[in-house]
Description:
Blueprint lengths: L4 E4 L5 E5 L3 E5 L14 H24 L3 E14 L13 E13 L3 H11 L3 H6 L14
Antiparallel strand pairs: 1-2, 2-3, 4-5
Helix pairs in contact: 1-2
Amino acid sequence: MGEVVVTSLSNLRNEVSYGEGRTLVTDEPSELGGEGLGPDPYTLLLAALGSCVSMTVTLYARRKGWPLERVRVRLRQRRVHSKDCVACGSAADDYIHHVERAVELEGDLSEEQRARLQEIAHRCPVHRTLTHEIAVTEMSDEAR
């Protein structure tokens, strides 16, 4: 995977550079002090997860030759106190980020195929990254 470079523009707007000459703009909504000119960071996080789920399920169905026509992933994120989220299964004593998702599959799939694709949806690389320990460190001077 290539490097991503984020450069501040004005107010809370940023330019995200990736790949060969590709860019996108991020921002916060106006009610949070931004101008709403692009997705906010949590929207990008959910988009990354949803995109990865969709791609993983699609590739699996394609490899199996299954008649999957379309994948739709709906996601929501909210911060909740761990004690208020029984489904989260967290032993933490503070707040956690709870992501809810629904994976909808279109196509002439059997119930067994649908069930298997729902299992596969939990195995996408971004899902695994988000549900395992993550270390964020400073880049070395040589890597800059």
